[in-house]
Amino acid sequence: MPGSGLILGIESSCDETAAAVVARGARTVSSVVASQIATHARYGGVVPELASREHLRAIVPVVHAALVQAHATLADLDAIAVTAGPGLAGALLVGITYAKALAFANALPLIAVNHLEGHIHAVLLNQRECEGAPDSSPDLLPASEDASLALVVSGGHTHLYLARPIHGVWSYSLIGRTVDDAAGEAFDKVAKLLGLGYPGGPWIDALAAFGNPHAVPFAFAQIKSKAHLAGKLPRTKAAKTAPIAPLDPHFLFSFSGIKTAVLRYVELHGMRAEARARLDRILSLQCPPRTRGEALALCPQPTLDLIASFQYAVIGDLLRKTFAAAERLGARHILVTGGVAANHELRRRFTQEAAARSLRVSFPTLALSTDNAAMIAAAAWPRFLNREFAPPQLSADPALTLA
Ligand code: KG4
Ligand code: ZN
Fold first, then answer.
1. Where along the chain do its domains lie?
2. What confidence score (pLDDT) does residue 232 get?
């Protein structure tokens, strides 16, 4: 049973190599993230082979840095936790293989964590840190952790789960999901189309602030009842996982249509050449514009309006379906997590809507919204207490499901 309460988390499912030390799932002692953005930026998306190579380069120094920052050695740990999926097979394998070797060599238990569960625990970790949950206590969870509706919205996922702690063990029911692209994928693809930087989310987030969100009225059609989808798997690039059919169509998302609508708009309004010219300039910029002057130097007003309208529509769709699901399920607390949860306008609108409905909404800090290993170590804590350890033959599961 718990000694130090320290768990080393390792995450390498996509394009960040991350390691963190977290105490009792409640306090981040260290968190190190090595981003591969510079490697993938010139391709406008993650190149799986390059991601594996970069993970191989980074994994040893990143884990070392996390331990040094925590003033800990491997001997101080209670366990090692690693992301087992979903994600890129080659990328996952780097983290898993290293975690297995470290665990074996130091006689530590190994805990396999689902990446999506990690994103949910990023919010719970923040919450425990804010509430000052005593990390000296072996108690699993503060009493306030009731059932919550969790929207995991990232580059690979747009999933709604009902998350419940039952006697300290978290269980998850899938309520809704995207049938094609993830919301973050739509941000990235639209940004690429408009000649903006990679990943696209932060660029769209920054530029949308200077555009009119009502200039282009993008609409989302209600996804119809899915008799024809019975037994079909979603068409997402990542996580070709649970069948869509048993889910209520009111809680299904689809983001491939809006991407095509933006493409049509760009072609119809002769914005193609402007986007191509912008891409060359973007590669020399360090970060997205911060002022209206900088934004206008990069994009004419109609492009800023298009960006703001796209973002407004995507967030509106996420918001409507999430709050409808909360109402249906009687959930009083909504968690929004994953890379897209870093979006400022999303946070503002979800916060406003929750206040209007007297519901509670929580987000992770910006650093914990995107991929990190603190969330993996935090999600592992209840499993550690339940002695749910990974078998020695643990391998990567690129399509691992949560529920
Ligand atoms: O959670 P994450 O780091 O990795 C995955 O598990 O996919 O999410 C990355 C995604 C990318 O699609 C990125 O464009 C998006 O999160 N993202 C954002 C913002 N920051 C990151 N999307 C909208 N607004 C942001 N500020
Ligand atoms: Zn993620």
1. 6-141+367-385, 183-366
2. 57
Options 3.40.140.10, 3.40.50.360, 3.30.420.40, 3.40.830.10; CATH for 183-366 is 3.30.420.40
- The per-residue pLDDT for range 118-173, each reduced to its tens digit, is 999 999 999 999 887 555 443 444 444 578 999 999 999 999 999 998 877 899 99
Ligand 1 atom at shortest distance from the alpha carbon of 200: 14
Would you identify the CATH topology of the domain 6-141+367-385? Nucleotidyltransferase; domain 5 (3.30.420)
Q: Give the 3-state secondary structure of the chain.
A: CCCCCEEEEEECCCCEEEEEEEECCCEEEEEEEEECHHHHHCCCCCCHHHHHHHHHHHHHHHHHHHHHHCCCCHHHCCEEEEEEECCCHHHHHHHHHHHHHHHHHCCCCEEEEEHHHHHHHHHHHHHHHHHCCCCCCCCCCCCCCCCEEEEEECCCCEEEEEEEEECCEEEEEEEEEECCCCHHHHHHHHHHHCCCCCCHHHHHHHHHCCCCCCCCCCCCCCCCCCHHHCCCCCCCCCCCCCCCCCCCHHHEECCHHHHHHHHHHHHHCCCHHHHHHHHHHHCCCCCCCCCHHHHHHHCCHHHHHHHHHHHHHHHHHHHHHHHHHHHHHCCCEEEEECHHHHCHHHHHHHHHHHHHCCCEEECCCHHHHCCCCHHHHHHHHHHHHCCCCCCCCCCCCCCCCCC
pLDDT tier, 45 (very low <50, low <70, confident <90, very high otherwise)? confident
Among protein residues, the one with the nearest Cα to ligand 1's atom 16 is: 339
> Is residue 211 within 6 Å of ligand 1 at its C-beta?
no
Q: What's this model's pTM, rounded to 2 decimal places?
A: 0.92
Q: Rounded to the nearest whole angstrom, what is the distance from the C-alpha of residue 84 to the centroid of ligand 2?
A: 12
CB 36 near ligand 1, within 6 Å: no
